[in-house]
Write a structure and sequence with these properties.
alpha/beta, Spore Coat Polysaccharide Biosynthesis Protein SpsA, Chain A, two-stranded antiparallel sheet, 8 helices, 11 strands, 34% helix, globular
Length: 229
């Protein structure tokens, strides 16, 4: 059984000009989180979905997802103060209620996720216990000093941009979260990074430029432009 955990509990503080968390912004008739919810609901290999939201949004989201819940089992739960904590809450809920063999964890701020990328991750789970999407850096990289002056260039040869979803054998990622908790680590940027704390390998498969994250106004404008096409 494969469960998808969709993280939608953040505050979206880096997106200026709105007091609405970015995952709840309405774009062309759909809220941002509903784009990836729709993708996972339609994917035949995903058995159940756990949607993690902040406490204030819980009643509203439970009502909004009813059309999708008719097609697939969706559990809406309350997340934590950090991304890591929200992911962990999703895993604990899965352990108690959905009991999956595998789990995919995705940030809903990446709304253009495709079924192809999910296929690639699910297929890779036959061979690896932990997988992340990664996109190779194309632009040159450099370091800036305290005076905002270019200091030196960095080789981009082995540099990748992390993307979600990330896919895991369930017990592997749960163990990684428990280990991070024992080390009092609370603000990991993603789930795969927790595996490195245990010196466990994470397999990388190619992501997509279209699977970008909505962080600022430029990202939101790009999304709207692409959807109009």
């Amino acid at each position: 059984m494969i469960t998808a955990i969709l993280l939608a509990a953040g505050q979206g503080l880096r997106l200026k000009g709105t007091v609405t968390p970015k995952q709840f912004l309405r774009i062309q008739g759909k809220k941002l989180y509903q784009f990836t919810l729709d993708t996972f609901v339609k994917h035949k290999k995903i058995d159940q979905i756990i949607l993690v939201v902040n406490e204030k949004a819980l009643p509203e989201v439970q009502d909004e997802i009813k059309p999708w819940a008719k097609k697939k089992s969706i559990h809406v739960i309350v997340g934590g103060k950090t991304r890591q904590e929200s992911s962990y809450q999703g895993l604990i809920y899965a352990q108690l209620h959905t009991k999956p063999d595998y789990v995919l964890i995705h940030d809903v701020a990446r709304p253009l996720l495709t079924t192809y990328l999910i296929d690639q991750l699910v297929g890779a789970l036959k061979s690896y216990s932990a997988i992340t999407l990664g996109r190779h850096v194309n632009d040159s990289l450099f370091v800036v000093d305290e005076q905002a002056t270019l200091h030196n260039y960095v080789s981009k040869k082995d540099i990748y941009l992390t993307q979600t979803p990330q896919a895991f054998q369930f017990q592997t990622i749960l163990e990684a979260h428990e280990h991070a908790k024992s080390l009092k680590i609370k603000t990991a940027s993603d789930d795969a990074s927790l595996l490195t704390l245990m010196e466990k390998k994470v397999h990388v498969i190619p992501g997509s430029r279209m699977n970008f994250k909505i962080v600022n106004e430029d990202d939101l404008s790009l999304l709207k432009a692409l959807l109009k096409r």
